[in-house]
Write a structure and sequence with these properties.
This protein is mainly α. It has three helices and two strands. It folds into two domains: about 60 residues; about 35 residues, no CATH class. Helices cover about 70% and strands about 10% of the residues. It has a two-stranded antiparallel sheet. A hairpin with a 2-residue loop joins β1 and β2. α1 packs antiparallel against α2. The longest helix has 30 residues. About 15% of the residues have low confidence.
Amino acid sequence: MRIREIQHQILTMIVLVAASGISLHRGFQMRIIANKYDILSLKTDAMNSIKDSSASVIGFFSVLISSQLGVIHADATLYKRKEGEEHVTNSIFKKVESALLMRI
């Protein structure tokens, strides 16, 4: 598996914030209409839209943390480093801790 760094962090964060704002606004508008007319399917769709916006917020903070602290790989997947050698990446907490200690 090849690890790639995000090339345009600012543009990515702008798109994630815009997607989150649009989805959140859409979700609250649908929720108002669903409560007004008591439509269960629209209430469910409104909740899904609000959940989508929270996923965009999580994505935004992930890109923000990775771009500011230099963490380019933040999960614990197994990948090959060299031929025959396997390496498990450190958890994000160790990387964040070491990055913060370096700034002190």
